[in-house]
Amino acid sequence: MKPVAIVPAAGVGTRLRPQTHAIPKALLNVAGKPILAHIIDTLVGQGIERVVVVVGYMGDRIRDYLAQRYRRGIEVVSQEEPLGLGHAVFTAAPTVSGGPVLIVLGDTIVEPDWRDFLGGDQVVLGVKEVDDPRRFGVVEVRGDRVLRVVEKPADPPSRLAIVGVYYFPDAAKLFTSLTELIDRDRRTKGEYQLTDALQAMLDRGTAMRISMVDGWFDCGKMETLLETNQHLLRQSAPPAPIPGVTLVAPVFVAPTARIEHAVIGPYVSVADGAFVRHAIVRDSIINEGARVEEMLLERSVVGENALIRGGFRRLNVGDSSAVDFSGAGEP
After folding, report:
1. 3-class DSSP state of 51
2. What distance in Å separates the CA atoms of residue 59 and residue 77, rounded to the nearest whole number?
3. Domains in the chain, CATH or no CATH each
4. Confidence class of residue 66 from pLDDT cuts 50, 70 and 90?
5. d(CA 40, CA 277)
6. Using an 8 Å Cβ cutoff, are 271 and 286 in contact?
7. 3, 5, 223, 305: which has the highest count of C-beta atoms within 10 A?
8. Rounded to the nearest 5 degrees, what angle is found at the Cα of 86, between the Cα atoms of 206 and 115?
9. Whole-model pTM?
10. Per DSSP, what are the bridge partners of residue 55?
C-alpha cells in the first residue's frame, strides 16, 4: 500500500523577498516549473496516488495553480495560522486519518532512495551530514537507529540534519502525538515543531531509523534557489535552437518565451511569456512575463512581469518591478 503524501507549503519565505511579496515560496520557478510542481511530479512518478498540500500564505494562488495543472489526486487544506511545521502537518489529519504517510516539505527538492520512504514498519527520517546543524532539526543515532531528535540545538548531538522527507507506517500515531503537543501548548521557539512530536513518539517506544539523503536542495534563499536551478537544469534535455540566439547548455526556455539577439546560459531558466533581447544572461532565473533588455545578467532572479533594461548587474528583482539603467525613461 503506497502512502498518502503530505506536502506542507504554507511558508511565507521571508528570506526570498522581494520575490515572495507577490508569489508564495512554493510557486517560485526553478528549471522551468515551480518548486511545488517538481515535488508533486516526483511523488506521482513514485506511484503516489494522493497528495495533500497544506497551504497558508497566498494559499489561493497555490490552489489555482494546482487546479490548473493536476486533474486528480491532489487535495488542498488550509493552515489558518502560521503556527509551525508540526501544526501544518496536524492540519492534514482529518483528510489523511490512518495508514502510511509520507511527508515532503514544499520548499525543498530531495533525491532520496525512495524505496526507504514508500513502505516498511518503521518511521524513517531522511538526513544529511552538514557543517553547521544548529539551523536544522538534528538526530542523535546509534547505527541507523534514532535515539533523540532536537530542533535547532545550540549544542547539536550530531551533524545529521533532518532534510524534510519522513515516512510513517501509521499516520494515527503521528497525529496522536501532534494532538497532544497542541492540546498541551508545547511550543519550541514559539511554534509547534514536528521534531517535538517525533521525540514524544520516541519516548513511547516508537522505532525510528535514518536514511541518508545525498541530494538535498533547500530553496529557502536566493543563493540556494539558484543552486537548485543549476542542479535540476543539469538533468534537463538540451534546448531547441533559436535563430539568432546562442544557448549555452544547460538552459530551459519555455515555449512561449521570446528571445532575440542574446546569449543565454549556462544555468538559465526563462519562463513562459518572458522576453529577452540584446542580453547576456547566465546562472539566473527569469520568471513569467519578465522583460530583460540590453543587460549582462548573472546570478540573478527576476520576478514575474518585471522589467530590467540596460547595465551590468547582479539583481534580485521582485514581481511587477521596473529597473532601468539605460536612461531611456519609461518603456
Report:
1. strand
2. 9
3. 4-228 (3.90.550.10), 238-324 (2.160.10.10)
4. very high
5. 33
6. yes
7. 5
8. 55
9. 0.86
10. 9, 78
